[in-house]
Amino acid sequence: MTEFTVIGAGPTGLTAAVELARRGGDVRIFDQKDGPSGLSRAVGITPQSIALLTPCGAGPAIEAEAVRFEGLTMHKGAEPILHLPLNFDDDSSIFGLPQDRTEAHLIAALKRYGVEVEYMRPLTNYHVKADHIELDFGQHIRAKTRYLIGADGVHSRVRATAGIHYVGRSLPGHWSIADVIAPDWPHRDRFCGFLLPHGQIAVVVPMASDRYRVVSSLPDALAALPVPLEPEKVIRESSFTIEVKRAEVFQKGSVFLAGDAAHAHSPVGGRGMNHGIADACDLAERLIEGTQKDYDAARRPLADEAIEVTERARKMLQSTGAAKSILLATIAAIHRSPAAQRAIVHQVLAG
Ligand SMILES: Cc1cc2nc3c(=O)[nH]c(=O)nc-3n(C[C@H](O)[C@H](O)[C@H](O)COP(=O)(O)OP(=O)(O)OC[C@H]3O[C@@H](n4cnc5c(N)ncnc54)[C@H](O)[C@@H]3O)c2cc1C
Predict the structure, then answer these.
(1) What's the whole-model pTM score?
(2) Pairing of strands 125-128, 133-136
(3) Less packed terminus of the chain by CB within 10 Å, N or C?
(4) Tell me, which fold does domain 2-43+99-168+249-315 have in CATH?
């Protein structure tokens, strides 16, 4: 019987497995995919995540490869209205790296501890017994574990099988996303946000040399930009919906939830993956030290706070009418005050 089993090899599950293995835990990790993901959902990675991933070696590798954003420019339409500085102290940096590359560094760290992700293993069901859990992967493939960690994303099978409800709502409408190669885009290290008419928004985020992520609340991210961005190549275009949801509880007996399986919110503020990494580190430490009974009480309030902060920010950025006038007046005041600029950077990057 394995001591710890992780379901899901996204950033949360990989971090949980790496941290358990690093601390001497006996761990297996399964994913339904047929191999590492080539998709990059999250881009922004915080210094807190890099610090958490430093003991296992992934943090320095991520930092070495990532783009370090040199600043953030907010526009009203095409007109720049606010430049926020970054990198003015230890708490004001943010890095950009496609999620698949962050995952690749975690997989490399996991291998150094002798653990391989077991792909093509979709968890279909499990049964909780007195002192262990029996896992069913279909096709007569079974395993036994003492503790089960559900890091299997928004549609978590671990959560559903435990009978834990995922409470909240799906926001109406589809957001669009485009990953492009654009050597002529002038803001190589700068995060650019655009406030568009009718409460719509768009952003351009550097991911790697000449590679950018464009996201918009409108259906066509590239067409939504009010300034020219001429892609040499469009790597992918897709759309996504936003879930604002939280699991009722993050643990039930020996079953634990972390990352998107436990909470989901809009990508505004870039917290999702970073929050999952923090959940995973916290849970791994508790499981090794035997303090896991406090995991839910420790992490659930932080998820509530992340949901509240990201929703407040999203609503503000998508405001219309009088609320938008207040937003623009606030931005103008921040633009005039370097102290307010530093405070807002700390607030956005905290957590
Ligand atoms: C467009 C977009 C942009 C984003 N930008 C950012 C950002 O800049 N910064 C940030 O921090 N966050 C961002 N996020 C959020 C971030 O992508 C997620 O929060 C993060 O991927 C969650 O990681 P996870 O490991 O918890 O779940 P996931 O990444 O969803 O991984 C879950 C894994 O579980 C596996 N799985 C599912 N069911 C089963 C099963 N039954 N059996 C076995 N395996 C299973 C899946 O194959 C998958 O590999 C963004 C999200 C989107 C959509």
Answers:
(1) 0.94
(2) antiparallel
(3) N
(4) FAD/NAD(P)-binding domain (3.50.50)
